[in-house]
Amino acid sequence: MKDKIEEIKKQAEYCLNCKNKPCKSGCPLQNNIPDFIKCIKEGNYEDAIDILNETTIFEPICGRICPQESQCQGNCVRGIKGESVHIGNLETFLGDYLLEKGKIQCNVANDNSKKIAIIGSGPSALACCYYLATRGFKVSIYEKHNKLGGLLRYGIPEFRLEKCILDKWLEKCILGPNVEVFTNIELGKDVTLEQLKIDYDKIVLATGANISNKMGIDGEELECVLGGNELLEYRKFPDFKDKKVAVIGGGNVAMDTSRTVKKLGAKNVYVVYRRAEKQMPAETKEIEAAKKEGIQFLFQTNVIKVINKNIEKSQQQIECIKTELIKKEGETREYPVNIEGSNFLMDVDYVIMAVGSGPDKKIIDKLGLETSKWGYVKVNENYQTSDEKVVAIGDLIGTKQTVAWAARSGFECAKSIVTEIN
Question: For the chain, which end, N or C, has fewer CB atoms within 10 Å of the first or last residue's CB respectively?
């Protein structure tokens, strides 16, 4: 432990404590990063946690799974000429300290008799719950699975976020006297929006957007084609042992599914991505981890068809085509264009789609709420939906799909509810 603390202090000393705090501006939650790092330098860990808790409660979570390189660390001044401050490591240290020794310093308001129902228990829901519960609201969480956590439990694999840490965090930071939890309750199946509107002053929808997108290619309807988001959520895996698996996509879901499949015994796992490696939305550390685990990458390669080669033996092929990257006039990002005549076939046993996700249309249609052209629930600047008693947050409204951005929407929505009801 002593060696760990010395290493953490060494990493903290590397911070310049910039006055303009570019790292803070890069954080979706606007965490006061230089100030909490200053406290670490001085050995004042409780003070560091108090500073973070002014804007977040996710230290043990975000420190581990946030894409710091594209958020806070990506804005670090140190990174201009060298290596950025390891902000994620420092936040993880404080998060673990909080779980083992720290205290949650928050002013819990008196009961105001107002009741809020939150549907879902992912990052946005839990942020909203924490803020409201500590301000005297009676909060009921409705979760369709048998445990809380949403994406944190049913979307992020154990090798990225240990569930024992999630459980400790939920127990210490989220669950309290003003929070009631109902599990195995699914909206539209076990309870309706109209029923909840009778019993609660406000309904917060936070059911996420975890239905894997389709590519719209021939053969996508075959049984061998699976959705990456659904595999991670429900963990109902076919027998991948000694199989060849192609994962289509370049984000963190593609990395998580490919690594999971490899750990389940797949012989060959291929990540097929239509752009270049530098354009992959996945975190660099996750890409490097996948490479170390033997996962193969096919960059600038597009899948245009899935072919059932042998129905009886469940043998499949994917038809691929190479791409070139071009920059359209007036655009900064390069776009992939198929190279005519560069088609080739690959033998595979399974194909996993990880090309983005969206809300469950079946649930959305039952709600009767106004939606955007992309199928997300439409809200105003206060997260209000077309129903005055219902607000929506997180991925359900198209929030950027990171834990910190989801949490931010939860905190902001909760503040709006407090302002409105008070």
Answer: N
